[in-house]
Amino acid sequence: MLSSVLDRPEPLSRIAELMSTFPAQWALCGGWAVDSWLGRQSRDHGDMDIIVLQDDLSAFFDHLAGWQLIAHDPNVAGNTSEPWNGRSLDLPAHIHARSPEASDRLPNRLDSPAEAGFGLDIQVNERSGDDWVFSREPRITMPLSRCVGQSAWGLPTLVPEALLFYKASELRRRDKLDFLAMLPRLTQEQREWLREAISLVGHPWLAQLSG
Prior knowledge:
Beta Polymerase, domain 2
């Protein structure tokens, strides 16, 4: 039986409240997104991941006014702790966020964001017209209208096949666990999209998707 909004874990209720007035598209991603589709918490999570579109970064910066924000893109060192001032970000990019309640000074280096209290990790994605762009080369896209759905805990959540495409890129142990948890729940259409997408880049999950 799927869980309801009333059953959702407290961290997801906090993010739902935080983003309820955000004027642009956003979605839950990462491990909590997997659990949101499963309707149960399958493992521990070090932080919360959401995704926003590159075109909406100005609105997002305004929305999180008062938060401590550190952005990483190809123009800065990977462990920079320089506060993000709302500048445009080149992809790939993500933003670490710490709530206004945090009184700690910024660390000199941000080697372990979650341990430093940056519990929200914002992934930045590209849009091209009506398409969500997963990869420019090879070009992999999906219509924006298909990319996000309402998951079991009532949050906008990246659809399973898109979620697993991102998780396929690193092959960390937790990503493999998420893949195995989600695999039996994929529809044939979702399997086919994911198989085709990761076949363009090559991946060991292909055999299981073809089974």
